[in-house]
Amino acid sequence: MHPPPPAADAMDFSQNSLFGYMEDLQELTIIERPVRRSLKTPEEIERLTVDEDLSDIERAVYLLSAGQDIQGTSVIANLPFLMRQNPAETLRRVLPKVREVLPVAGVEMQLTAAVSFLTILQEESVSVHTYAHSFLQVILLHLEHRDAGVSNAWLETLLSVIEVLPKETLRHEILNPLVSKAQLSQTVQSRLVSCKILGKMTNKFDAHTIKREILPLVKSLCQDVEYEVRSCMCRQLENIAQGIGTELTKSVVLPELIELSRDEGSSVRLAAFETLVNLLDVFDTDDRSQTILPLVKSFCEKSFKADESILISLSFHLGKLCHGLYGIFTPDQHLRFLEFYKKLCTLGLQQENGHNENQIPPQILEQEKKYISVRKNCAYNFPAMIVFVDPKNFHMELYSTFFCLCHDPEVPVRYTIAICFYELSSLPDLIPALTAAEQRAAASLKWRTHEKLLQKYACLPHIISSDQIYYRFLQRMFTIVMTNNVLPVQKAASRTLCIFLRYNRKQEQRHEVIQKLIEQLGQGKSYWNRLRFLDTCEFIIEIFSKSFFCKYFFLPAIELTHDPVANVRMKLCYLLPKVKSTLKIPADKHLLQQLEMCVRKLLCQEKDKDVLAIVKRTVLELDRMEMSMDAFQKKFYEKDLLDQEKEREELLLMEMEQLEKEKQQSDGRPMSEKNFEKKRRDTKTPTALPKSLPISVPGPSGTSTPSTSKEIKKSKLTRSQSFNNQAFHAKYGSLDKCASKSPTVGYTPSVSGLGKTSVVSLTDDSFRTRNASSAPTAFSPAPSLPGTSRGTSNSVDPKSSASKDTQPRKATLKSRKSNP
User: Fold this and answer.
1) How far apart are CA 257 and CA 235, in angstroms?
2) 243: which residues sit within 8 A by CB, 6+ positions away?
3) Which residues contact 646 (CB under 8 A, 6 or more apart)?
4) Does the pLDDT value for residue 721 go beyond 60?
5) Taking the first listed entry, what is the main subcellular location of this protein, grouped into a coarse class (predicted)?
6) pLDDT digit string (tens) for 670-715?
7) 613 by DSSP, 3-state: which?
């Protein structure tokens, strides 16, 4: 019989096992050591204790003299504060101690000192002369620190100091010592520092000084025996060329770049190539065609045989290269360069996919990452390549490449080509594609994707015309607000709808949208729609001016104090402080009285205990609020200035509409967006403020008026327009009388997703497939409203209007109170 096998949990006392146990014990010992070291003895605690009666200066001096490194580092980090508080004593007592400890200080204290010295310079705590006298020598002393990180930190501080130092100080303190520091007998680090200092100082001296004293050093460093120095100096030639002018650049810098482009070191050749690309605008056509183009051609041909990092740089600078050499290529060179770009766009895609990353060697994975970077750079430069081939030839020359980039297996490539869409030429199918994307997101279960997409639609007013937005997108936003079941999606659609309304160029369309918001949301039968109306009011307060909200939405909003659903009244109570903040006294005194009347009715008549508790808290908050006045106040200066800017732009939209109508009547052509932007910029100056908006701000006194009588006439004509043809009820029509302030316009909110302003607007005619007569039925001119109060002509049984559809649900009511 064989003996039974040992139990699984039995202890194994073999030699290997014992060694394993000993290693585990050693690991536990190592883990415990830092804990023991962190404990301070009474003597150490005594040394770390500082008398609390010492002043900040005395404490700093004591800690730098007798304290430990961590305390000294803390003092140096606090040096900018000491300079702000007491600069004279800090320079007299603290700075000498800092000079004493820095030569023997550790890396952390050195880095902290470099940052503190730079902060003192940026905060202008002392004059430039005092700074140079007190700090410059300390900075220069530690430029060649043995630690590369410390040396770079001091160098960055010095480069910032060079920008503000006077010419004579630069010559005596930096340039003269630099002559010896740049010699071959010095260390490589010293010569690298010299290269960067030369690149920074060039624009501080005249051409004669540069030619006599700086350029000889530049040539010497370009021919240094170490490739790191040659590469570093080559990258500074761009700054040097900007300081010496075109003639010296062609006679001195260009020959050095040509020689460096043929260097044996790949990093030097890469630096020369990138510098040449950045300086293309400096050289004339002959230099570009006879000298630079052959170099670029040779560089591209050898790039596939070189390191992948060269391909990354080449693909990144491709767009700038195409722009700089445009018109110089022969047809054959143009075709070859285009084929080279197409080859880069598919680099790495020829390899078989579906492999397991765990089975691929690390060097292959690293190579694939570099190929992804190349394709990403190609996607980044795609708009420039469209210009290179001419937009007319897009489908024939670049569509297949565009398709490949859009379907690249890597997300960064697809993302980069996606954010380049707005830079392209006009795409006839842009609006249908955006519409299809929204419908696809709405049909999916990914409501967060739908929400983000609707948020990004807020940039459309900067890209397409307001008519295109009105007929293709605005009704869809309204439908989502009315029917979607996901609250974040509804809010995103509501905010985007408000932005569409903000940039709409036609008063008739604006009035129709406002009327629909009040009728179908504010007076809707579903309490859910009335809640969304309050959300919309909050967005309007954020996006529009105070006068706009008071004119159109103030009364419809506070009328919801009579709503039969407790949740609606509760949400309104939370909104009331923001509603009150839109009022200006004394012009809106009558609206303030109506607000106070509604609040008093809530206090007296509210039966729901939860709503009543919120009403009482809201009343206290409303009482503590300070009212904004018609004239500017110091405490509300920034908010009032922002609101006035919004008013100014709102008025500008109406003026532009009137001018556009006059222009269409005269020559039948709409006003260009360029003239609109010019008009908008012109009206941003404080001299264009209307008389009805008195301000008290520092500056030239005097009342400003429109520059011409024609503008005054058009402004008055625009302000006199009301909702007569929209057949508003008399109660809401009285809002035009209430708003004594002129509805002027201003602040353009920043829209997420719009990276640049230099976009090509899509033409109105390319998408205008229907005119006003073929507008959607939901936005056709509405008949007169039978009434504005749900208690009169629009009376609804409280039971039928209490729920989202028909029936009240008390459980739902209570559950939503915590998140109105």
Assistant:
1) 10
2) 202, 203, 205, 210
3) 544, 545, 548, 744, 745, 746, 747
4) no
5) cytoplasm
6) 555 445 455 444 444 333 333 333 333 333 333 333 344 444 334 3
7) helix
